[in-house]
Amino acid sequence: MNLEFNVNNQIIKRIDSEKVISKSRNIYTAIFNFIDTTENLFIDENIFVIFQDSWGKRKTIFLGKYNSALSCNVPNDVLKGTYFKISIYAGDLVTTNIVTIPLIESNYSTCDTIQEEDYYKDIFVEIFNQLDAKVDKIKINGNYLEIYKENVLIESIWMDTVNEEFVRDLIDDKAEKIHQHITDDVSDFEEKVEIDLDVLLDGLTETIRQI
Predict the structure, then answer these.
(1) Residue 14, SS3?
(2) Residues 6+ apart with CB under 8 A from 25
(3) Cα–Cα distance between 67 and 44 in angstroms, integer?
(4) CA distance to 68, 71, 112, per residue, from 43 (Å)
(5) Going residue by residue through the chain (211 aa), what tens digit of pLDDT does each one get?
(6) Per the CB 3.0–4.6 Å rule, which of 99, 155, 165, 173 could disulfide with 147?
C-alpha cells in the first residue's frame, strides 16, 4: 500500500487517502514526488527522509539522488502508537515541514494470538532449526534424543513420556503434523507431559549454548 507525498521545494503534502493501521508490518511504501519548479532546491542533492514515531524516536533513511519520484518502505517501528511523522532534508541544508500520519488503532497483541499449543510448536521448531544449523544429525534412540556433530554423539537428552512421533515429525520438519500432535497430545498428557516438554526444551536450549 502506497502513502504518496508531493514535495514542492520546502513544502511536503500528503496526497493519498489510505488508512494506516497501527502494528502492521512490511505493508506500506512512502512515495515522494518532487515538483519541478524554477527554484527546485533538491536538484543534484542526496535526499533523506526522517520518520518519527509517537514517542519522538527518529529513523533516517537515504532515499537517493534527486529524481522526480523516490520511495522507501515505511519502517515497522514507527507503525505503533497513535501517529508518526515524516519530513525530508537534503544537501547543506534544505529541510521541509513535517507531515503527521494518524494511525488507526489495532487490537493485535502477540500475547493474545499465541495459543498454548502454538507456543510449544513455535519454540520447538525454532530450537530444532538452530540445532540443525549447528549439528550433523538428530535422531531418536528409544526415549533419548541423540545429537551428533561430525558423526560423534555429543548429547543425549531424555524425552520420558513425550510423544516419540511428535519429536520425529519435528526432526522431519512436518509443520502441519507438529501442530496436530500438539493439539491432540498435550491435552492427553496434561501436567506431566508439560513438565517433560519443559525438560526437553531446557535440554535442547542448553545444547545449543554449548555447541
Answers:
(1) strand
(2) 76, 79
(3) 9
(4) 9, 16, 49
(5) 999 999 999 999 999 999 999 989 899 999 999 998 877 889 888 999 999 999 999 999 999 899 889 999 999 999 988 999 999 999 889 999 999 999 999 887 655 554 544 444 555 666 666 666 666 777 777 777 777 777 777 777 766 555 555 566 555 655 555 445 544 544 444 444 454 555 566 666 666 556 5
(6) 155
